[in-house]
Specification:
Layout: H1 13-17, H2 28-72
Length: about 70
């Protein structure tokens, strides 16, 4: 049983890489600025959460170390 298929001619590279021209409307700059601002807000929120989480983890580790030291003595 043979499963060989005959393929037709493959289109040239030009047809795969042509991109239709896009006309930019007047709101592109305002939408881009809003996108960047949302990114800045999210970045600030993530950094704040990471710093708070790190501080809480450090305090929990210090508390566990103190409790371990008290339990050993």
């Amino acid at each position: 049983m043979q499963t060989v298929e005959t393929l037709g001619a493959i289109a040239g590279r030009e047809t795969y890489h042509t991109v239709p021209a896009v006309t930019l409307d007047s709101g592109v700059d305002s939408r881009w600025a809003a996108w960047l601002e949302r990114g800045r807000i999210r970045d600030r929120r993530v950094r704040q959460r990471l710093s708070v989480s790190g501080a809480l983890l450090a305090m929990a580790t210090a508390g566990a170390a103190i409790m371990y030291a008290l339990a050993r003595s």
